[in-house]
Amino acid sequence: MSPFRVxxxxxxxxxxxxxxxxxxxxxxxxxxxxxxxxxxxxxxxxIQMYPTYSYAVRGAPELVEPLTRQLTSLFLTFSTVSVGxxxxxxxxxxxxxxxxAMVLGPLPIGRATVVSAKLAALVVFLLxxxxxxxxxxxxxxxxxxxxxxxxxxxxHHFIAHMVATTCAAACVFSAIVILRGLLGMTTRGHLASALxxxxxxxxxxxxxxxxxxxxxxxxxxxxxxNAGITISGIHMTVMPAxxxxxxxxxMYEQLRDPQNAAAANVARRSAxxxxxxxxxAAFITxxxxxxxxxxxxxxxxxxGTIGGARLSRAxxxxxSGSNRVAHAASDFxxxxxxxxxxxQALVAINAxxxxxxxxxxxxxxxxxxxxxxxxxxxxxAMPLMLAFWTCIGLRAAFFVPSELPAAWTxxxxxxxxxxxxxxxxxxxxxxxxxxxxxxxxLATAALxxxxxxxxxxxxxxxxLVVALADFVVLTIDHxxxxxxxxxxxxxxxxxxxxxxxxxxxxxxxxxxxxxxxWNHRWHSAALLTGAVIAVAVFEAAVRRSGxxxxxxxxxxxTDDFFKVTALNLSNAAAGHA
Amino acid sequence: xLEIRHLTxxxxxxxxxxxxxxxxxxxxxxxxxxxxxxxxxxxxxxxTGLLQPTSGDVLLDGAxxxxxxxxxxxxxxxxxxxxxxxSYLTGPEYLRLVGRLRGVPExxxxxxxxxxxxxxxxxxxxxxxxxxxxxxxxxxxxxIAAVLHNPRIVILDEPFSGLDVSAARxxxxxxxxxxxxxxxxVFSSHVLEVVEQVCSRVxxxxxxxxVGHDSVEHLRATLQLPSLDAVFAALVAEERVEERTHEMIAxxxxxxxxxxxxx
Lengths: 577, 263
Known about the structure:
The complex is a heterodimer of chains A (577) and B (263). Chain A is mostly helical and 577 residues long. Helix content of chain A is 74%, strand content 3%. Chain A has 21 helices and two strands. Chain B has 263 residues and is an alpha/beta fold. In chain B, helix 3 packs across helix 4 and helix 3 packs parallel to helix 5. Chains A and B meet through helix 12, helix 16 and helix 21 of A and helix 1, helix 2 and helix 3 of B.
């Protein structure tokens, strides 16, 4: 096999590498699940449009073109958001890093071979992500939208759809590759790492918001008739012109109808911009490799180049009191989250679910989006909703091991029978979730009600966050990141209603409770007092249950945790048998 | 004194070690030798409290160490064979983690960490994460972590793995000196030349059983062999070394020249 092919396979495999993927089967299952999750909504949306199109063709032909453009805009958005999401989760592999330079640098392989293999892997990854996605929307949509124009119309629709959506996806993907490459070249990786989780949060939120808001962009009036339900009207909300997906709509129209001169100029600019982005990504990839070769052996000049959540750690140490073991554990928890993508991804995904649920509340609010933003029950619930899901994300992250063989550090050095680990974990959760939630609560309440009321509200929110953190810690029984992952332990299939109910109860329910006593001073004081008592009770429970945390069991785990259990004994057992 | 009495460890039908007994006295370095699969690592992990024995006792000054495991582990320092560390932490961060878990006072901790790093020549790499450390650098971090809290018992499993010549010389002197200071030192290694230089007495294991337990000089004199290497070979009965060496070279040179293979 040629070096190019070997490198291409290695680079392509890096896109899917993960500590939680324990086998090829799990990897394939994961890929199939993600692809199915992304492909299904687009196809369903396209098929659902058939009755709408039939109505438009028969009853409102003047709506056919606007409807086609509206849906194309939705599909363009879906393509860009989906590819952005996939790229965000493959962030580390999008450009060369120090490890690539240290491994490949000494080998007798030309730079051209290495860079071209990387570019080939990027191209295949992009096409592998966006082509199936867009095919799923292009095939039904082109048949439905052009049914009245014959086969040539269908083919034109299909080509235009595929080219426009693929170009939009390529543009987004190239932008992310350029960003990743620039960060890799100019920083030591800390900023790139921090941005990865932010990007994941943004992309997951964008996708979920797309699912929530897309139906609101196109509403269809239906009324019952003798023969069943019929459509009586179609209402479309035009996407704002500043949205990037609108830039590729003219490309679609130009390809669908080359006689459309109005779209030609914009389409040409979109095509040039896409080519420029792709070229930029290729250039950054080449420059990135050269840069990584240069900096591969240079030691860091200061600790600031490595992210470490210093402020959160300092806060967590304060919250842990004077217990040195708790300080060690909280530092470990926060540093692990700050420097490990897998754990960050779980927090980012759950936080984006919180944001999406908040957007859903806004979208469902009577009076529309504008009045929803001013509604007190929505404003006050928002920080709590985000805090709830971020805590859930942290809890999920605690069950994902980080460098499991290194957990012997706790086994050999950590004292048992102390609640220090539980208190440290609670402190870490509060340190992560507390400050942004309190700031958000303060800001939203201050805008609506003024600072004195905002301060009272922020105090209540802080108490709720601490109580929630205690509750989360009560549901775990080990030092975070130090146990093997047990697939299915979260029982999401059966417990998801609890999570959703819990989210609404914690956010909307408690916000409504606070609003009910908002104008009664004594009732507010009673509510705050109740929150303080709840915190005290949870705290005592955490201290009590934390003493039973085993740090780590003294008996060996029957996997390859220790060489003696895996390698030597398996050979010896074969001999003895 | 640390006494190991009739230690046995079974995993189902498999016996990893059987009836192993020896003692470690203050002021001496006990060497633990044996080929792969001899039960060396199992013995070390039981001594460090990471595994429970199936039967037998580990006694510290006459008291059962496992009855007060936390107290026993608090005076024990351990360098494992495999340098598994949290690679996303820097050296000082990892050492601070261990130091705090061990209860080393904060005022002394940073000073100790800095001095140890300087003395072992890895101070300049203190801002690098452990993922960029070589094997020898990781070994140095493990060694520092093992002695940061001034333990009474020090157990070293292949501590010289990956160390450069200078660091190995420093470590040899360090091991001898801490033994002279009255600490109990157990030293497990495959490198017999180093064991011969560092250890006062050795325990030799084979197939989970003890086949030798004496001072190096006495073993040499008893078996009338010139070196510990020869003693080890005699007791562990490694056979066909030269023959296997020649076979390995033949395999290395093996090429398929035509449809018929030529050796």
